Amino acid sequence: MQLSGTRNKSFLAAAGVFLIAKFKWVLALLKWSKFGGTFITMAASLATYAVFYGWKFAVALIYLIFVHEMGHVIAARRKGITTSPAVFIPFVGAFISMKDKPRDAATEAYLAYGGPLAGLISFLPAIGLYYATEDPFWALVIYLGALINLFNLIPVSPLDGGRIVSVLSSKIWFIGLAGLFIVVYFRPSPITILILIFGVVTWWNRQREGYRAAIVAHEKYNLVRLRDSIQEWPSMNSTFELKRELQSTIAESERVIQHTRKTLIPFIHDNEKLAREKAKLDLGYSLQALELVKQWEFQPVYFYEADPQNPAPSELLVRVQRELNEKLAIVNEQLERLSTYYEAPRSVKWKVLVAYLLLAAVLSAFAVYGHELVQQFEVNM
């Protein structure tokens, strides 16, 4: 018997080597295809779950997660947003990344809502299968599907719930963080701790958006001032006053930076910190302008038809103005996003709130129902 078992193992090993050698091109094709990452990571997660929980449970779990992610993909396509294929991570779940940013929080909420909604639909067939077969496995699928998607509705970013309620008020994140902290305190797990950390970072960044908007607005001020100043240079009789003004700004900016305390606490020292950041921007743009003036003074001047009253535009200044306009467009986009991203009509907020509460209630009901079914079989056993 032992010899037979050894031969069987040798046969299986040889067969495995043969298949890998013959079909390694399939793995290469999957790796480089559009959905190769999805298939490979899905297979790896499936195998990992199967080792711990068995193949049947692993297939059900992968199915539930996959449908959830496809809900996000479909919602993104309906909004014209391109996404990456889904990537699975064992004991974490799966994720997709957006190649285009949502234009506002309402659009982001729509994309986030698609996952749990599809997740709800994913386990509905298990209800019929349970009543048809009375197999406890389908009761487990109902409970697991409801629990996964209900967990995703916790109002903490980066979970779907946090991204949904952001259109209502990002202050709700704090409530979600408090609840998640209680869960982590009493029942810590790597995934909940990781979500809590990401949630705190996201909430913190949201609270600092007003401060960042003030910095971006000051950068816009410097860009416009430099661009408009360059337009006046060709008509100047002398650059002496211009250079003196720039040197004065440089000296004042350096003084502010030097006399600002090194350790500044957010919120408490925001005014002082903002003054220092503005001074850094003033210093950078003044140094750029001063260097540009020096370069421009040594540029040859050309005239249309040799007319000294009709000078041709400086190629140097034209190029710099074009670069400033391109950068200004980016800064304007950043400023608009920081200022208006979370704004939404009252009607949209009501729709999001009702849809969120309704989905949470339905998933909660199914979670309780599935849990009761699972407990019945545990008691009977």
Automatic annotation (TrEMBL):
Cofactor dependence: Zn(2+)
Alphabetized InterPro entries for the sequence: Peptidase_M50 (IPR008915)
Keyword tags: Hydrolase, Membrane, Metal-binding, Metalloprotease, Protease, Transmembrane, Transmembrane helix, Zinc
Location within or outside the cell: Membrane
Membrane spanning stretches: 12-30, 50-68, 80-98, 110-130, 137-154, 174-204, 352-371
A Pfam entry, by short name: Peptidase_M50
Coiled-coil regions, chain positions: none
Membrane topology: Multi-pass membrane protein
Peptidase M50 domain segment(s): 57-129
Main location: membrane
Source domain of life: Bacteria
Keyword Lipid biosynthesis: no
BP GO terms, sorted: proteolysis
GO MF entries: peptidase activity
PANTHER family in UniProt: MEMBRANE-ASSOCIATED ZINC METALLOPROTEASE M50B, STAGE IV SPORULATION PROTEIN FB
Similarity comment: Belongs to the peptidase M50B family.
UniProt protein name: Site-2 protease family protein
